[in-house]
Design goal:
The structure is a single chain. By secondary structure, this protein is α/β, with parallel strands linked by helices. The protein contains eight helices and nine strands. Strand 1, helix 2 and strand 2 form a beta-alpha-beta unit. The N terminus is likely disordered.
Amino acid sequence: MSAVLGVAPVQVDAERHVRKGVPEVVYAAGKNPRLTLTAVRDLLERQPSGRVLVSRASLEVADLLRSELEPGGATVLAAPNGGTLLVTRRDAAPPAETGGVVALLTAGASDAPAADEAAWVAREMGCRLVRADDVGVAGLHRLEQPLRALREAGADVVIVVAGMDGALPSVVSGLVDVPVIGLPTSVGYGLGGGGLAALLSMLQTCAPGLVVVNIDNGIGAGATAALIANRVATARSSSSR
């Protein structure tokens, strides 16, 4: 059934988390803010979890969701670097922990918005997150401690977020024994800017075990990482019985 009557049709996938293991995410960019509101409200009512992620949300969208939903008991949380929102019903419980562990590394502070998307999706899918920011190849010594931390945490998969030259994912992939997901960002300028050089660099890697999502696709990186980590956690739990 259409979630909107008289504005524009939108059909939310309230059963995606059951069918796919990945929650429906409302993509706010390009939508009329009130259309985003309608989709979020529909998901809040229909999803048993009472939790809805919104990506690429402007300040206008965030303010609208707060003004319309919080008086009814909902809560709207924004990622530290903006863009990603989590809307929860009054009766919403935290996601059930799966035992999956996702590590996330960013090359620079400017990569944080895409990293936040990935992090919030992975957490909503029940994974524990181990994160280190601003550890790019311009100061490679910064990588030593985060690599130690992710090994000690037993990370099942690593998301590496980088713009500019996009070199960090290849470096990390050559140093860890778990899958690495490269997340190129649109940080960068001039020839190859906008994430193109980062994407091509990751695709041309010679370090095995690195796969790549599209530029700024934090949702895809987080969902894929969590699917891997959750499957590993299930196998780990079964083998320990």
